[in-house]
Inverse folding.
């Protein structure tokens, strides 16, 4: 019954999870599936994988057993989404290379930053701290390896938290807000990196000032607890020229 789930998290953990919390079981099972579909195993060994799986389980368990699981889930989702965006917009390659995120070409996300990783490692404090913590010399190759590992580790965690969100019913079959939120956070992250590099805005001149602020407000709306943050965000900016996801050229 527990197959891959037991292998990833431990059979005993899987059995105890199923007895305690069906939402937790479903989310952990989804997490195991996510791991099997991403190349994180290329960057970490078995011991590291086992420890990360345990830590991920504890984080999912904390959400499911909190006093207000839905609110806690959204809080953890926002924190992790912001972290992912830090890596994601650097991970996206320029055309015509394949973009596994599916975000290149959406408003504010260009794929242009990958070519500036070495320069960014010097001028962006968060990125420099991440690379320095590895203890390795900062080279173009080491930057890409650390970035790729960090991206897939954070993606695994984020998609696992999103599985909890879905199991908790915080999901709209017809108009879900998860991908729109990912786009908004990513576009704002690219904006900040471009400022680090003194690059011109990738938005049209008439929205270059307002768009980054608009995208950052999406996070506040998610944390507010509104039923559908994407719908509320679009309603708030419907009379502006701020481009929505789907208005890009992908």
């Amino acid at each position: 019954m527990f197959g891959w789930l037991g292998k990833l998290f431990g059979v005993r953990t899987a059995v105890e999870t199923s007895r305690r919390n069906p939402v937790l079981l479903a989310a952990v099972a989804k997490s195991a599936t996510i791991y099997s579909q991403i190349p994180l195993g290329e960057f970490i060994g078995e011991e590291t994988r086992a420890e990360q799986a345990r830590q991920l389980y504890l984080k999912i368990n904390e959400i499911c057993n909190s006093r207000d699981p839905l609110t806690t889930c959204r809080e953890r989702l926002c924190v992790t989404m912001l972290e992912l965006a830090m890596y994601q917009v650097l991970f996206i390659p320029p055309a015509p290379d394949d973009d596994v995120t599916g975000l290149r070409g959406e408003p504010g996300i260009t794929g242009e930053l990958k070519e500036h990783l070495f320069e960014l490692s010097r001028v962006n404090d968060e990125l420099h701290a991440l690379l320095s913590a590895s203890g390795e010399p900062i080279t173009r190759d080491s930057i890409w390896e650390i970035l790729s590992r960090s991206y897939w580790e954070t993606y695994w965690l984020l998609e696992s938290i999103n599985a909890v969100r879905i199991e908790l019913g915080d999901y709209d079959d017809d108009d879900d807000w998860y991908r729109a939120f990912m786009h908004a956070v990513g576009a704002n992250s690219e904006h900040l990196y471009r400022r680090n590099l003194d690059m011109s805005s990738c938005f049209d001149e008439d929205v270059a000032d307002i768009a980054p602020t608009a995208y950052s407000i999406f996070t506040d709306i998610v944390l507010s607890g509104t039923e559908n943050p994407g719908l509320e965000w679009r309603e708030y900016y419907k009379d502006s020229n701020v481009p929505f996801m789907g208005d890009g050229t992908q």
Residues 141 and 153 are 18 Å apart (CA to CA). The chain is about 65% helix and 0% strand. The chain has two domains: 1-65, 69-250. The chain has a mean pLDDT of 90.
